[in-house]
Every structure is written in structure tokens, then in C-alpha cells.
Design brief:
Elements (H helix, E strand, L loop, with lengths): L2 H16 L13 E9 L9 E5 L4 E4 L5 E7 L2 E8 L5 E9 L4 E8 L7 E4 L12 E6 L1 H6 L6 H5 L6 E2 L15 E2 L9 E4 L2 E2 L17 E10 L10 E6 L7 E10 L25 E17 L3 E15 L5 E16 L4 E10 L2 E5 L11 E4 L2 E12 L3 E18 L8 E2 L5 E2 L4 E19 L2 E19 L6 E5 L4 E7 L2 E19 L3 E16 L2 E3 L12 E3 L2 E19 L6 E10 L18 E7 L12 E10 L15 E2 L6 E14 L2 E13 L2 E2 L10 E10 L13 E9 L12 E4 L3 E17 L2 E16 L2 H4 L15 E2 L2 E2 L9 E2 L5 E10 L3 E10 L7 E4 L10 E4 L12 E13 L5 E9 L7 E4 L15 E4 L4 E9 L1
Parallel strand pairs: 1-7, 6-8, 12-15, 25-29, 39-45
Antiparallel strand pairs: 1-4, 2-3, 2-5, 5-6, 9-14, 10-11, 12-13, 14-15, 16-17, 16-59, 17-18, 18-19, 19-20, 19-21, 20-23, 21-22, 22-24, 23-24, 24-27, 25-26, 27-28, 28-31, 29-30, 30-37, 31-32, 32-35, 33-34, 35-36, 36-40, 37-38, 40-41, 41-46, 42-45, 43-44, 46-47, 47-48, 47-51, 49-50, 51-52, 52-55, ...
Length: about 950
């Protein structure tokens, strides 16, 4: 461990010892629970007490021989608890909040009957959860509705300590876009998405298959680490809890609106060339944001059968720096019905449909209007659930869901005109299309068994996912053209790209929660079996190039990749006092990574096949026509054997000695309840990520490369770019020592990356104040450090050149290039600091104030130079990284302040009208979010280091909600 690491560890441990804070329990579930212990005035346990809860669900149980009763799988919301026993005073608690994944512990003391016949408790329930097994953030319904936000789950996610997003959503400008993000030592590919406890992750893109109506949520729960055996990966566990029907009719109708006239101008001086006296309002802007919809829930048969449904629609229209427009329409439909069939049996059914209709996806300075694509769906989920209670000791829940996923991309420029990239790096005329179908099936069974001080948890999950995708370039000849000092060009001839794959997932877990006097011990084991297969597919020949890219018929390959891993989980909490206001906790967990549905597709012979040639434009149409292609020399190729193109019976890629990726995590934490309803928490997290797999060229090692050149130059300085260090750079360039080393078809081998690991260290503090006494708040701070290490370069590296995509820096930051929709050129590393704060205050005269604040370190500025003609027989074009590390140069810190002023107007005993006035980016910051980092781009508005994206300007939003 380095001195820097030891110093960070020491700071984290000292801070944990000094601060005591608290939050609800972490679990990958969408329901909560109430654990109640009944005692008399002497502390003796009371069996036979009748305990009733009312609220979103009504239940009644009798305490067992230990004086305990448990209400499991409760819908999120506020409950009332009533306890009665002959000879004792009645007890009532009117404010017991249940959160997703939370376990509310209540110790109730019943006094002997006397003059006082009833005890009514109005104080907040405890916020310390003795079963807490990690770090998580529960975002309540009050926060979702009363704090100003852009109204999508990705915005909520960025308010969680340790998570960084690839965009800034100002008043909904990025709503309807799937953000790229990084968690605490885990990329977005290990995130699991869940709706009402059902895993729905799109296993092809390893992202969410849906876009959401914000008002369909009762709560959101975001887990970032811990020892819960239900957690499938070490990534972020996202769980969206839908509203439900109850015994009371309830609902809302809402609308939110903003447009260009409600927006300021924040164009910085270096972008003044975009403005003109007649129209100074240029830059990244919102044209219009409209969000409307409503929901309704209530009883069909009181105490027996309930229903809830919602409809919502968002229409978001934005403009990019180059004037290209981007419009997104998000219609959503949700229906849920629940029934108490018998005292022990409960069932539910949920239907959810979400679509994303988009015109102008990927619009930006390098993607003018005609090169954007239009997107369409929709996606759907059908889910059924059954709960059964066997006495007071055994509880089972089973869930099954089918998810219809998929979408299409159609280029606005059409499929009849060829696409090309000019010398400024700007796409022209059109773009490629994409069609994908992604169905999935899942079955989940969970159980809880209680015996004395033990709570045994067990369950399993089975999932099957498929992907069927097709894409090709426009123009009829599958040629994409790169200008290389026009009229000189590079012609990329590409076969139609197909992907047909399947994955199956089977997991089992079992654990025991042992409750002692002050200590709670969580023990668990989880086993995951993941299998990736290739399905049969077919790729057509490229007309005019059949000799190099012929038709390919690919057979299927069953069980091409298999991950099996047994993962231990251990957690301990210890209360420092009898009142359990302060507790220490420690957890250890091992996780594996998700194997994507298309992970084995590299073994298909119908994979991505391409060949590059030189070309010269003779007819002035800016694109390489087949007769303008110089076929005498092949510049580059991939996916087939250039010396024997017709040999397509078997793949040139292979599976070698590979392992199962694993993350070992240790968390130390302290929780403290400062006063009723207000808790704080501090956590230090250490992760070691190893056994990582990669795909180098077959037979190629570090020793296969020799230095073939050097690139020198000067970096931008602070005088031109704030935050840039300037100075000269020298980049050694390496290449294969001989073309004879290149394997047939440039075949790669899937195997363990020996001599390589990653290390994450992070410290976070957070505080949550529930809504009470007219105010609520949530705060969080985190500092993170995530780096990669090449312990043995001979086995962990091939080409040692420092490149944009593979920095090859021992001890350097782990980098994630933005993969979110509509975003490119953004590179993320974990920020050294991030602070969030939000809250709401209910002032006199029913006036409400809300605020949302975020500040974090800026994105890296990874200056690089795209260089062609390199003496590397494998790769003649490289993006040479010109900085010593990704963290060397940073964009300015990102800081946003959003505020709300609202007025509640009572229209009846249960009917209220809320009028909200929000202002986003209150300080009208023009923070730069992206520049042209390619120093080889020297012409036009996209030349380096020109600004490519800024934060959108201040904008106001007016909203109205009728609730009942």
C-alpha cells in the first residue's frame, strides 16, 4: 500500500471514530418490515399480545413465546401500530415510517391497567437499524415530491455519495437520457435495476430497459455496498418502488412546464462567436419541457382487493451548441392490483409500459441534425407475485416477470445517402441504423424463517435473457468514409453487423441474522452461475466486396462462457448503549461481475467484420464510392482473415484460461441517532478488484512490441484553458515487431488478465432528517480514489503505448468513457470530493421552500493526439494520450443550485392544490462540461481545445399538482 493510500486510510478511520451517523437498512428489495418486541414494565417479554398495523397495508399478529412479532414484506409508507393485552394499557404509535429495505425495530412497554387506559406515541420511530448490512440511500416520497429536481431516476442517483454521472441535468434538459455513471469501485455495467423487487436489468447493454414516469414512485432505494446476500454484484443496486392501492382512494394530477422564454443566457466569452446582435441566445439550451399525467389508487373490495394505475408523459426539446435539435417524448403506463386472498395468502399483478420516442439522438457539435438518429420502442413488463405466511415463523414470496425490451434507431439523413466524417471530426449526411429485440424472463423466490434469536434467509433467482440486433451503414454499399486530408480519404467497408446471443443466470443464497443483546451478526453465502451462449445468425455479403466480406452463416455455441462463484458475506453491528442510539458496524463481502447477454458474441463468425482502404474523391461527393477505393493496399481489417476471407466456418477468436471476476469489499461504519427522526452515518470502504478477464491478440505479449517512434508537442496551458497545466509532452509509440506475429483474422483470446488488479478506497458521511416539525433534509459528502495496477506488465499489458482508451499507467485512475445515450467525449474518474444537500421547509401560510445543491470535482481533460501512419502492422492509427494521468488536468468544478417556492391551497378536507415555482442553475453557471481533447483537430469550430458542451443556463419551471 502506498504512502498516499495509508494516509487516506488513516484519515478515513479517524473520521469514522469521530463521527456517528445513521440510515435505513440496505437490501435489494422493494418492501420493508417492522420488528416489534413487547415487554412489561420490568422488561419481561410478553407473549400473546395482539398487535395490529394499519396504513398502506393492514395486518394483525400475536406475539410469540419470546414476545416478538414481525410484519414482513410491507408496502412502503407510514403505519400506525396498536398493541393490546388484557390487564395492560393499550399502546398506539401513529408514526412508523417503513422504507424500502428498512427494518424498523420497536420495543414496546405495556403498563398494567390503571387510571390511564391508553398510551399514544407520536414521537418518531428509531432510525438506527440493527440489521443494517451496508451503505445505501433511501429517497422518500416526501423528498421525491418536495425537493426540486429534473424528475428522473438518474438525477436522484447523482445525489448519492460515491456516484458520479456523465452529465448535468438542468431542469430536465437530460431527462429521457440514460446517464453513464461510476459507483464505488464499480462501473455502470455492474448496476442492477429493479422495479418492485424484480430484476429488470437489460443484460445486453447492462443498463435500465425503461424510462420512467417520476410520479409512479413511492420511494427509491439505492445500495452502493454491503454484505446483503441478495445483492448480485458489487455495483449500484437501483430499486424503484411503485405506488400501490390502499383502503383509501388517493391520487394526483400534475403538470410541469418550462420553455425558452423562461430561460437565461450563459454563453461564456470563448463561445461569443455563436451569438449575434439579433439572436444572442445560443449555446446548449432547452426549448421546451412538458411533464403531465396522474395516478389513482384505492380499494375494489375494502381490506381484500386494491388497485392502482398511472399515466405520464414527458416532452423534452433541447438545442445543442451547433443548433441541432433533440426531442424526446416519454409516455408511460403503470397498473398494479393486489389481493388478500386469505389471511396467509396475498397476490399481486403489475403491468408497466414505457416508451422512448426520440428525434435527434446524439445531436451535438460533431453530430449535426442529419447525422442524428430517431429512436422508438416500446418496452413492457408483466409481473406476478405471491406471498404466503406459514404461522409466525415462515414467510415465502415468489415473483415471475417477463420483460419485452428493444428499440430502433433510424438516421434522420436516411439510409440512401452514405455517411462520412470530415477533417474536423464532424459526421456528415447521415448515420447507421440499429434494430434490437431484447426479451427476458425471470423467476425469484425468497424466504424468511424465524427460530429463537435466528432469522434464516434464503432464496434463488433464475433468469434468461436474449438479444437479437442488426445494424449497417447507409448508402447501399456499407462504406463509411473518413476524410484524411480531403480529397484523400479512408474507406471503411463493413459487413452488416448482427448479434444473436443468450444468457442464463441461476443464483442461490442463504444467510442467518443472529440477534443478541447489543450485537447483530449477519452471515451469508451466495452462489452465482452465469452462462453466455451464442445463437445461430447470418450476415450478408457486401456488394462489390464479396471477395473480402462474403456472406457468413454462423452456428450457435452453447455455454461459450460460464461463471461460477461462491461468495461469502459477513456483517456485524454492535450498539454502544442500551438505547441503541449509536452503533458500530463492519462488513465483508465478495462479489462477482455480471456477464452480459452479448459477452460471448465475439466467438460468432458473424461478428463485426470490416476492412479499411485508401480512397480518393474524384466526383466531389465527399464519400468513397466503390470505384474510388484503392484495393491494392489494405490499411486495416478485423473480424476475419484478410489472407483467406472465405474461411468463415469457425471463429478466429477463442476462449483461453479465464476466471471469474471478483471484488473483495470491507466496510467500517458508525451510525448515530442525534434526535428523533434525524440520523447520521459514516463509512469507510475498501475494495480489491481482481481476476479480471480481457481479450488480447492471440499469442501477443508485452515482449512482442518494440518502440517505433516518438510523438512530441505542447499541451494547452492555463492561459487558453482554465485548469490546464501546459508544458511539453513526449509519447513513446510502440508497435508489433513483425507483421508475422498477427494471428489469423486478428483473433483474440478471452482469458484472465494476470498481474493486474484495481483498488478502491472511499470515505463518505451522510445525514437524513425525516419530514417532521415542518422540515426535512438529506446531506452527503464523499471522497474517492479508484486506481489500477499493472503488477506484472509482461502478463498484464500488450501494447504499452499510453492511449486514450487504455492509458497503461501503473497506479493511474480507472477511467470510464461515457456510454450514456446522447453523450460522448466525456471521461469520468472518481472525484476527490463531492457534496450534496437537499431539503424542504414548510413555512407558515402553507408556503413551502425546497433546495437542491451539488458540487463536485470537474471531469478530466485527457488531451490526446490522433496519429496515422504509425509503423505498427496491427494498428496504424492511434489516439496517443499526452498527459501523465487522467487526473492531471481538470475542468472547473461542477456546482448547481436549484430552489423551489410552493404554495399549498386546500380545496377540501382531502383535496389539495400545490403550485410549485422552481429555478434550476440559480447562479446561471456556464461550467464547461466538454472540450475537444484531440489536438490533431486544428480546423473549424470543433478544433482543439474548443468547448463542445456547457451546462445549460438558468431556467424556471412552473408546476401544479392536485392531490387527494
Amino acid at each position: 500500500m502506498t504512502l498516499r493510500s495509508l494516509r487516506l486510510l488513516a484519515i478515513g478511520l479517524m473520521a469514522i471514530a469521530a463521527i456517528a451517523w445513521s440510515m435505513p437498512a440496505a437490501a435489494q428489495t422493494y418492501t420493508g418490515r417492522i420488528d416489534i418486541t413487547l415487554e412489561d414494565a420490568t422488561g419481561a417479554r410478553l407473549p400473546g399480545v395482539t398487535v395490529e398495523i394499519t396504513g398502506p397495508m393492514n395486518q394483525s399478529e400475536v406475539t410469540d413465546a419470546r414476545g416478538e412479532v414481525r410484519f414482513l414484506n410491507l408496502a412502503v409508507g407510514i403505519y400506525q401500530v396498536r398493541a393490546t393485552l388484557g390487564g395492560f394499557n393499550e399502546y398506539k404509535n401513529t408514526n412508523v415510517p417503513v422504507t424500502a429495505g428498512g427494518a424498523i425495530p420497536l420495543t414496546i412497554k405495556l403498563g398494567v391497567s390503571g387510571a390511564k387506559e391508553e398510551v399514544t406515541v407520536t414521537a418518531e420511530s428509531p432510525v438506527i437499524d440493527t440489521k443494517k448490512s451496508g451503505t445505501n440511500t433511501a429517497v422518500s416520497f416526501d423528498e421525491l415530491q418536495k425537493v426540486p429536481s429534473a424528475r428522473d431516476p438518474w438525477v436522484v442517483m447523482q445525489s448519492v455519495p460515491g456516484i458520479i454521472m456523465d452529465r448535468v441535468n438542468v431542469g430536465g434538459s437530460e431527462s429521457g437520457q440514460q446517464s453513464g455513471f461510476m459507483g464505488k469501485g464499480a462501473g455502470s455495467g455492474d448496476t442492477t435495476w429493479n422495479v418492485d423487487g424484480m430484476p429488470i436489468t437489460d443484460m445486453s447493454s447492462l443498463s435500465s430497459p425503461f424510462y420512467y414516469d417520476f410520479d409512479m414512485f413511492q420511494e427509491m432505494n439505492i445500495v452502493t455496498g454491503g454484505s446483503d446476500a441478495k445483492s448480485a454484484t458489487g455495483g449500484i443496486q437501483m430499486n424503484m418502488v411503485l405506488k400501490s392501492g390502499t383502503n383509501s382512494y388517493h391520487g394526483n394530477v400534475r403538470t410541469y412546464f418550462e420553455n425558452e422564454s423562461m430561460q437565461s443566457t450563459n454563453l461564456p466569452p470563448e463561445l461569443s462567436y455563436l451569438a449575434s446582435p439579433s439572436d444572442p441566445t445560443k449555446g446548449d439550451r432547452t426549448q421546451q419541457f412538458v411533464d403531465w399525467g396522474g395516478d389513482l389508487g384505492g380499494p375494489i373490495l375494502k381490506d381484500r382487493w386494491w388497485a392502482w394505475g398511472a399515466f405520464g408523459k414527458q416532452d423534452i426539446r433541447i438545442l445543442k451548441l451547433n443548433g441541432a435539435s433533440d426531442r424526446t417524448v416519454l409516455p408511460n403506463i403503470s397498473v398494479k392490483t393486489q389481493a388478500q386472498i386469505t389471511q396467509a395468502l396475498r397476490g399481486s399483478f403489475t403491468f408497466f409500459q414505457a416508451n422512448k420516442q426520440k428525434w435527434g439522438r446524439n445531436a451535438g457539435p460533431t453530430r449535426p441534425q442529419e447525422t442524428t438518429v430517431n429512436q422508438d420502442g416500446p418496452n413492457q413488463m408483466w409481473k406476478g407475485e405471491v406471498n404466503y405466511v406459514f404461522g409466525n415463523n415462515l414467510f415465502l414470496v415468489g415473483r415471475y416477470a417477463y420483460v419485452k425490451g428493444g428499440f430502433t434507431f433510424d438516421p434522420q439523413g436516411g439510409m440512401d445517402k452514405p455517411s462520412y466524417m470530415d477533417d474536423g471530426g464532424v459526421y456528415r449526411q447521415s448515420y447507421g441504423n440499429y434494430i434490437t429485440d431484447r426479451p427476458q424472463n425471470a423467476l425469484v423466490i425468497d424466504g424468511n424463517y424465524f427460530k429463537g434469536a435466528h432469522e434464516i434467509k434464503f432464496g434463488f433467482t433464475w433468469r434468461k435473457t436474449e438479444v437479437h440486433s442488426f445494424s449497417e451503414w447507409p448508402g447501399g454499399n456499407n462504406i463509411f468514409t473518413y476524410h484524411d486530408g480531403y480529397p484523400d480519404m479512408l474507406a471503411q467497408v463493413t459487413a452488416p453487423n448482427v448479434s444473436d446471443a443468450q444468457s442464463k443466470y441461476l443464483s442461490f443464497y442463504a444467510g442467518d441474522t443472529i440477534t443478541l443483546n447489543r450485537a447483530t451478526i449477519n452471515l451469508g453465502l451466495r452462489f452465482d452461475n452465469q452462462v453466455g451462449s451464442v445463437l445461430p445468425s447470418e450476415s450478408a455479403a457486401v456488394p462489390g466486396f464479396e471477395n473480402v466480406l462474403p456472406k457468413v452463416v454462423a452456428p450457435g455455441i452453447d455455454s461459450a462462457l460460464t461463471f461460477n462463484l461462491l461468495q461469502p458475506r459477513v456483517g456485524v453491528t454492535y450498539a454502544l448503549d442500551e438505547s441503541r442510539k449509536t452503533q458500530l458496524r463492519a462488513t465483508y463481502a465478495m462479489f462477482t461481475s455480471q456477464i452480459g447477454t452479448g459477452a460471448a458474441s465475439f466467438l460468432s463468425v458473424a461478428q463485426y467484420r470490416y476492412v479499411y482502404y485508401h480512397a480518393y474523391d474524384t466526383n466531389g461527393n465527399k464519400s468513397a464510392d466503390p470505384n474510388e477505393v484503392d484495393r491494392s493496399t489494405v490499411v486495416d481489417w478485423g473480424g476475419f482473415d484478410i489472407n483467406n476471407p472465405s474461411a468463415t466456418a469457425t471463429s478466429y477468436n477463442k476462449v483461453g484460461d479465464y476466471g471469474v471476476p471478483r471484488t473483495n469489499e470491507v466496510i467500517f461504519g458508525v451510525d448515530r441517532e442525534l434526535f428523533p427522526g434525524f440520523g447520521m452515518s459514516a463509512s469507510f470502504t475498501y475494495r480489491h478488484i481482481g481476476n479480471v478477464n480481457w481479450r488480447p491478440l492471440i499469442g501477443i505479449t508485452r515482449a512482442s512490441y518494440v518502440q517505433v517512434g516518438t510523438q512530441t508537442g505542447v499541451l494547452p496551458g492555463d492561459d487558453k484553458v482554465p485548469g490546464a497545466t501546459g508544458g511539453s509532452y513526449t509519447i513513446p509509440i510502440y508497435g508489433l515487431s513483425s507483421a508475422s506475429l498477427i494471428p489469423a483474422g486478428k483473433g483474440t483470446e478471452y482469458k484472465t488478465r494476470d498481474g493486474y488488479h484495481q483498488r478502491y478506497m472511499g470515505f463518505e458521511v451522510s445525514a437524513t432528517k425525516r419530514m417532521a416539525n415542518n422540515w426535512m433534509a438529506r446531506l452527503g459528502f464523499s471522497t474517492n480514489d479508484w486506481r489500477e495496477y499493472f503488477d506484472d506488465p509482461n502478463t498484464s499489458q500488450t501494447d504499452p503505448t499510453s492511449l486514450l482508451g487504455t492509458p497503461n499507467i501503473d497506479g493511474g485512475y480507472v477511467v470510464s468513457a461515457s456510454g450514456g445515450s446522447g453523450k460522448s467525449g466525456i471521461y469520468m474518474v472518481q472525484p476527490k470530493y463531492q457534496f450534496i444537500a437537499n431539503g424542504s421547509y414548510q413555512a407558515p401560510w402553507d408556503i413551502n421552500f425546497g433546495v437542491n445543491f451539488l458540487v463536485r470535482q470537474g471531469y478530466p481533460m485527457p488531451w490526446f493526439r490522433r496519429t496515422t501512419g504509425i509503423a505498427d502492422p496491427n494498428l496504424s492509427t492511434k489516439q496517443l494520450l499526452a498527459v501523465g494521468d487522467f487526473g492531471q488536468d481538470r475542468l472547473p468544478a461542477t456546482s448547481t443550485v436549484d430552489i423551489r417556492v410552493g404554495k399549498l391551497i386546500k380545496l377540501g378536507s382531502r383535496v389539495n392544490l400545490n403550485i410549485d415555482f422552481d429555478i434550476f442553475n440559480l447562479m446561471n453557471s456556464a461550467t464547461v462540461l466538454g472540450r475537444q481533447y484531440d489536438m490533431s483537430r486544428t480546423t473549424g469550430t470543433t478544433a482543439s481545445p474548443n468547448v463542445l458542451e456547457i451546462m445549460q443556463p438558468r431556467i424556471a419551471r412552473i408546476g401544479g399538482r392536485i392531490t387527494f
